[in-house]
Specification:
Number of strands: 13
Mean pLDDT: 97
CATH topology of the largest domain: Aspartate Aminotransferase, domain 2
Largest sheet: 7 strands, mixed
Bound molecules: 4'-deoxy-4'-aminopyridoxal-5'-phosphate
Number of domains: 2
Low-confidence stretches: none
Oligomer: single chain
Strand order of the largest sheet: 4-10-9-8-7-5-6
Number of helices: 11
């Protein structure tokens, strides 16, 4: 068993990082904005448990911010990864796994006739935009205000280091607002290349919102009328909502989809799937990367997709998510402290009433963390196939400590 320390190893690493990493840490995994006590550095992970560098164990409700779909160190996925790694990792061309994985996606994803692979979600969304422009010969891209599509200049939520030219052809609309969509379509005129949309509204720090059927259908109709691409950004929700693509339940099929996060259970991979209309454009653009053909993550993705089907992972995620949601609702009732739990249960978002500055959420999370569960105060969380009822119950006992801290 690891020896437990009170965060001093984490603090020492942060002090060293400050010297050699600008700002000490960067991006979404920067722990600086998190409540007091949150570790920056982790030592290991297994199933739905993570250990920080000071040996403290937590029930993991973030799953690496999404990629871990089946649990850390899933035996079948790791075996597939290692088998391919023993044969070859980065070679002068892809391994057969590239074709097998593309066939698996074309078989599974309802709208897909072909697939391309990258490393990160940003690669996939950017590739979709490039394909849409190639396939239509047009420039304008419609995006919902506040939706996250990645961390490069055309879509980064920060404007630091970004020029107005980088955003010259991006027009915003409001999620679930057909009038604002129509206005944006009008503004794009004859230059509309694509409408981009996330599987549901999962912007940081606000209640999650499922798309209405009318909204999803209006997006499809607008893209079809303009012969532009409807791009579904399924990077975050993909493989957690619906096995055939997140909008399959709505009966609305995109032309292009971007996947990443859950596709290879934590190994680095992203995918774009598309239909016949955009095959030609996808074949003409130049996109690649030194590691995009890395073989073991593709073998891991094939194993992940097989396992999700064999075990009906989504049904399990829903059951565990419902248990967590019901338990939190009960605790909040008992404490007389209002919480809002929104969006799909398997991607929990917990926000407190009358908490505009997130102070309650932060106090709740700090106490819950001390009691052994890693919640996030402002971002949606993620469940995995490794979560069992007893893990959810452990997270709920930790949450009880969180509610107590708020009541006290
Ligand atoms: N789109 C969505 C909806 C996302 O949630 C993310 C990542 N949070 C991205 C795109 C970008 O993915 P990545 O961080 O892997 O580049």
């Amino acid at each position: 068993m690891n020896q437990r320390h009170d965060g001093e190893i984490d603090l020492a690493l942060r002090a060293r990082a400050k010297q050699v990493i600008p700002g000490g840490m960067y991006g979404h995994q920067n722990a600086a904005p998190l409540p007091e006590g949150y570790p920056q550095f982790f030592a290991r992970a297994t199933g739905c448990h993570v250990w920080d560098v000071d040996g403290r164990e937590y029930v993991d409700l973030m799953c690496s911010w999404g990629p871990v779909l089946l649990g850390h160190h899933h035996a079948g996925v790791d075996a597939a990864y290692q088998k391919q790694a023993a044969l070859g990792v980065s070679m002068n061309g892809p391994a057969p796994a590239l074709v097998e994985l593309a066939e698996t996606l074309v078989d599974r994803i309802a709208h897909a006739d072909w697939a391309l692979f990258q490393k990160n979600g940003t690669d996939a969304t950017t590739t979709c935009v490039t394909i849409a422009r190639a396939g239509t010969g047009r420039r304008k891209i419609l995006v919902a205000q506040g939706s996250y599509h990645g961390a490069v200049p055309w879509c980064s939520p920060s404007l630091v280091g970004v020029t107005t030219e980088d955003r010259a052809h991006v027009i915003q609309y409001q999620y679930n607002d057909i009038a604002s969509l129509n206005a944006a379509v009008q503004e794009a005129g004859t230059d509309l290349a694509a409408i981009l949309v996330t599987a549901f509204r999962h912007d940081i720090g606000r209640d999650q919102e499922m798309p209405t059927i009318e909204f999803a259908k209006a997006l499809r109709a607008a893209a079809t009328a303009a012969d532009a691409a409807l791009i579904l950004d399924d990077v975050r929700a993909g493989f957690r909502l619906h096995a055939a693509g997140s909008w399959e339940a709505l009966g609305v099929r995109p032309d292009l989809s971007a996947f990443s996060k859950g596709i290879a259970n934590g190994y680095p991979l992203a995918a774009v799937t598309g239909n016949e209309r955009f095959r030609e454009g996808a074949g003409r653009i130049y996109v690649t990367g030194s590691f995009w053909c890395e073989a073991p993550p593709m073998a891991a993705a094939i194993a992940t997709l097989q396992e999700t089907k064999a075990s009906n992972t989504i049904a399990h995620l829903v059951a565990m998510g419902q248990r967590l949601r019901d338990g939190l609702a009960k605790l909040s009732d008992q404490a007389g402290i209002g919480v809002r739990q929104t969006g799909p249960v398997q991607m929990p978002m917990v926000l407190f009433d009358d908490d505009a500055d997130n102070a309650k959420g932060r106090r709740f999370c700090a106490a819950t963390l001390r009691a052994g569960a890693y919640f996030h105060p402002r971002h949606n969380m993620f469940l995995s196939a490794a979560h069992q009822p007893e893990d959810i119950d452990k997270a709920l006992s930790a949450a009880a400590a969180g509610f107590e801290a708020l009541a006290g």
